[in-house]
Predict the structure of Ig-like domain-containing protein.
Amino acid sequence: MQELRLLCWAVLLGLARACPEPCDCGEKYGFQIADCAYRDLEAVPPGFPANVTTLSLSANRLPSLPEGAFREVPLLQSLWLAHNEIRVVAAGALAPLGQLRSLDLSHNRISDFAWSDLHNLSALQLLKMDSNELTFIPRDAFRSLRALRSLQLNHNRLHALAEGTFAPLTALSHLQINDNPFDCTCGIVWFKTWALTTAVSIPEQDNITCTSPHVLKGTPLNRLLPLPCSAPSVQLTYQPSQDGAELRPGFVLALHCDVEGQPAPQLHWHIQTPGGAVEITSPNVGADGRALPGALAAAGRPRFQAFANGSLLIPDFGKLEEGTYSCLATNELGSAESSVNVALATPGEGGEDALGRRFHGKAAEGKGCYTVDNEVQPSGPEDNVVIIYLSRAGGPEAAAVGGGAPGKQPPGLFLLGQSLLLLFLTSF
């Protein structure tokens, strides 16, 4: 037993004295330091003592930091990696360093960074990422860094900042973010307001400038005039019943999403059918109803045709196309959504809509079309059951009224001819 203890102590003593050949290891001011700076290294060398608390790898030629790069030194409190050639910091490279207080990644070429690794570094107080090629910071990148006091992001390629990016940094006292090519659109207004009111020290504010649009190029953010900005709003509309038309095979469902907002929102359709969910970024067809490059289509026309003016057409609407149709509008300031449930009614018969509510149908006299009588049995006061007649005659592109401005209701009716389909739609 005594021999085993001695063997263990010998092993531990050997580990404590181990040091990669290119580096110098020792104790200074109570810290276990490994100095590997200026060694022309192209990879993090193995063999560090497990009790190292400070590691310098600055001024080498490291091209990347792979997963587990610092697994040997979990007690690190300071890590210096400035002036390398690092382009990629892989997921898991920094995550094991839960006691890290200072991290210097400045003066590299980092464009691909595992931001999620920062979520494990709750003890971090200094983070230097200046002079890199970062173009994007996730909104939740700093969510765990409540001890962070100094953050340097200057001289990168940041075009935008998500609102609330710095909100978790309750201990922050110093932020450098100058010399980034910011797009001075509505999405940056929040940062201007925050920078003017925060107690955080932000030096070189005259160098926090706009790069675009061109008319604002070079304008300091703190002198930016108010911009006309508004969050999206949407209204999903459809046509009421049209009497006196003849019923023929072949139908088109036509919906229109009226969108407002500044900057102009991006329109997205979510369609939940019995066969599954369909996601469409509008538009996916041109004014002639044919698929745009990159859109999946059968015989040149997608099953769901989303036009630039906010219209959505579904040729050959049938039971497989029943379900919930939602339009979602998003811009830099937020999003808005509106939905409608669509169910196909069999002429002359009763049934249930997509929400399971009962209705009764009967033929109208002399016109060859169908309507719904007053025997609808609502399940609650919120019910809004509407009859819609839709047609295919003239081709689906007719309903798109090509050339309509995005987000504006097209002139005329959605109805395309004289053949009609009886539909029930419940909006909410």
About this structure: The chain has three helices and 27 strands.
